Amino acid sequence: MLRQYELIDRIKTYDPDVDEDLVNRAYVYAMKMHGTQTRASGDPYFSHPLEVAGIMTEMKMDSATICTALLHDTVEDTDVTLDDLRRLFGEEICHLVDGVTKLSKIEYQNAQEKQAENFRKLILAMSEDIRVLLVKLADRLHNMRTLHHFNDVKKQKRIATETIEIYAPLAERIGIHKIKEELEDLAFGVLNQEAREGIHARLNYLRSEGGEAVVERIIGELSNKIGEAGIKSNIFGREKTRYSIWKKMKRKNISFEQLSDIMAFRVMVSDVQECYHALGVIHGLYPTVPGRFKDYISLPKPNGYRSLHTTVIGPENHRIEVQIRTKEMHEEAELGVAAHWSYKQHDGKVDGRRYRWLRELMDIVEHTQKPEEFMESTKLELYQDQVFCFTPNGDLIALPRGATSIDFAYAVHSKLGDTTMGAKVNGRIIPLSTPLSNGDQVEITTSKNQTPSPNWEKFVVTGKAKARIRRFIRQQQQAEYINLGKAMLQKVLKQEGFNYNEKHLNSDLCRKFKMDSTIDLLAGIGSGHISSREVFYTLHPELHPKEKEKTLKNLFGNAEKKTHQKGKSSPMPIKGLIPGMALHFARCCHPLPGDKIVGIVMTGKGVTIHTIDCETLESFADTPERWLDISWEEGEDSPESHVGRLLVTIANTQGSLGTLSTVIGKNGGNITNLKIVNRSLDFWDMVIDVYVRDLNHLSDIIAAMRATAEITAVNRARSR
């Protein structure tokens, strides 16, 4: 373990003006508070925050960050409170510790929700001060170094998966490649130990077969050639990590023996001009590999990484990757944002919001609701390789590989994305779904009347674009629910002889249905979670079936009475519906409980329910992706009566129409609409809409009508 004076000596190597008293007090306080606590390894628990502080000194961090590292577990694992830290160490350190503190005391429904919420809080904290993330990464790095002490294999794999999916990409995003690579390699050893050991053995074999001598000869030749051009350089070879080798083998579907650039050579020169000079020397000496040159000096990565990358067929006919950079660029590549943090600064925080990728993550935080959506979007935002495109004004926009014009528009501004109508790439109009390439100049055309299309979600790749599109779809569905709920309530009121008046939908009514507002109440009716009939009875309790059974029977028949006497609201009894989709019953076939049904997704309108034999379905034969496999819930009653449509032929005799309505009424049905479609001297053809409970109820009515002499023919009507 680092002793107190050793920690101070480390900090003094880069910050002679370190606040020794502050660091010493934090050291003693943390050691005292953790007391006799031990880790899984058996070591004193204090060894962990001390190691995290040691990693912070390697990043040359300021005193406040070192103290945060020492104290970061005290609030969670001891009796220390944030108020204690604020009183003893000040507001800045208290704020940083609060941002780093684990959130294990919050209860979640499942592990994914817990992970998403922890990550969400981390993003919010580091958006205010990037040092929170630096301490968190150091904390995770030391935990990964000691992960083998856990006996729980499942826990090991869970922590390793979280590390490789979240923390390593975060380290890469802020340019700390040294930590990123170690996190990946440690997690790789847990998740795929056999593969890691296999690659390790092959690398050892290459070294034993003279690989190290080859590296020395390549370094010697490069150094001589660059020196002859009058450039002072420092060249060293570096083995790629086991995880990066495995990832490349997996991505390109090749064996280890087929890899030709296991070694990367770094050429360190004095300034930017010499970087390009050295590049010219190397390209003049050796054949280049097409498509393998990248200029990250003129176009730095979003994390600030700068370097020239090229691959050549170099000395001894070896294919080698060469990275050319200055000493300053190398320090930034190793330490990333930490290299920009000056321990001499005393003006407070590093503003995390200046990092574009962090602003994108913040936008996702604001526009996603479900944990699975949040984790998916943030992984997309962190993981993918970059392409660089330009606005018409020459501004550089970095996007994940595979990004489209819609992703580009949202990266520029959310409003631009929402109103995108078309795009020109390099002056040529292209489909919005076309992936962009490096160097493309993209011009977005917009319209005030344009809104995000649900189809966009199928091809966008950035988390921000997905979050914004999903948010719009949710809002659109909510509007559909509200309009549908309003129409359903108006219909019930009209049937009962009342006019719709929103003033009647007061806060008392909302509270009875456990809704926060009138909007939520109408949306609940539209989504089928609240019965419009129950809302009516709440508004007019004197008309409830228990009070007006006779009136109800005359208006809606026995079927309606049986349906609503349950006195409870329930969702539409249909299995297989996509959650959050508005529901409509097709008027072409009038599906009833008991029918075999299918759902058709209608853009902007939710799901329309058809019977499986409806002729209208032929028009959707070419779009099978819009079909939903659904069915009625067995044993469930619908919250409202359904319309059954009949095609009836009756004799043109006195009293026949009265006989027809009497038969329907006696069998529990209620005529809601009647249209005569054909008249002759002897017969009338008509279409009749009847309220029924389900298919069996309609079949009973049809059977009774067929037994009546005045009714010549009766069948269920289709598509009329």
List the keywords:
Hypothetical protein af1432, 5-stranded mixed sheet, Alpha-Beta Plaits, alpha+beta, 4-stranded mixed sheet, 720 residues
Walkthrough of the structure:
- The chain is α+β, with helices and mostly antiparallel strands.
- Among the domains are: 173 residues, Hypothetical protein af1432 (Orthogonal Bundle), CATH 1.10.3210.10; 139 residues, Beta Polymerase, domain 2, CATH 3.30.460; 75 residues, ACT domain (Alpha-Beta Plaits), CATH 3.30.70.260.
- It has 27 helices and 20 strands.
- Helix 3 packs across helix 9.
- The longest helix has 36 residues.
- The radius of gyration is 35 Å and the shape is elongated.
- 35% of the residues are buried.
- About 9% of the residues have low confidence.
- Poorly predicted tracts of residues: 102-110, 340-354, 371-384, 548-571
In the CATH hierarchy, the architecture of the domain at 4-176 is Orthogonal Bundle
Number of helices: 27
Average per-residue pLDDT, rounded, comes to 77
Instruction: Determine Rg (CA atoms, Å).
Output: 35 Å
Biggest pleated-sheet summary: 5 strands, mixed
Give the arrangement of secondary structure elements.
Elements lengths: L3 H9 L7 H15 L12 H12 L4 H9 L2 H4 L4 H8 L1 H10 L10 H18 L2 H15 L7 H21 L3 H15 L1 H36 L5 E6 L2 H11 L10 E7 L2 H14 L8 E2 L12 E6 L5 E8 H9 L1 H4 L15 H12 L3 H13 L2 E5 L5 E5 L4 H8 L1 H5 L1 E6 L2 E3 L11 E5 L16 H33 L11 H6 L5 H10 L4 H8 L9 H16 L9 E2 L7 E3 L11 E6 L3 E6 L15 E2 L2 E2 L9 E10 L4 H11 L3 E10 L3 E10 L2 H12 L4 E6 L4
Parallel strand pairs: 2-5, 12-14
Antiparallel strand pairs: 1-2, 3-4, 4-5, 6-7, 8-9, 8-10, 11-16, 13-14, 13-15, 17-19, 17-20, 18-19
Helix pairs in contact: 2-4, 3-4, 3-9, 4-7, 6-7, 7-8, 7-9, 8-17, 8-18, 9-10, 9-11, 10-11, 11-12, 12-13, 17-18, 17-21, 18-21, 21-23, 21-24
